[in-house]
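Thread title: Can someone regenerate the structure for this chain?

I was given the following input by a collaborator and told the matching structure tokens would be attached. They weren't. Posting the sequence so someone can regenerate them.
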Amino acid sequence: MASMSMTGPGNVAQVAGQLKDVVLNSGISCELVGTVSRSQGGQGVQVMVFEKYYWRAGNRASLTLVVSGQGNTVCVDAISSGGGQGPIFKFSWGAEKSFVGIVSRALRGMGFR
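Best answer:
Regenerated them for you:
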């Protein structure tokens, strides 16, 4: 498992849309498997779940993004899992960290910290 949280400027829909494009363009085996959007009282939340097949590890990893915010401040939380192999030791080739890294690099480019 790998995770990260960053905060920056923008609105929830705009940031979520940009991240969706970045993640889907990160490889031909990447797909968006589910999404939920909610807004109430000036606050918004979008949850997106992606899966990506990693050839070097021979397995799929999942990435869950939660994009939330109010006004011009957006918080993005990313959690990746499922990239390990083995029933006991869960040996990982780093797929989870790589998946989260895609989001982290994109957010830094958008002015997030």
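The two ends are 21 Å apart (CA to CA).
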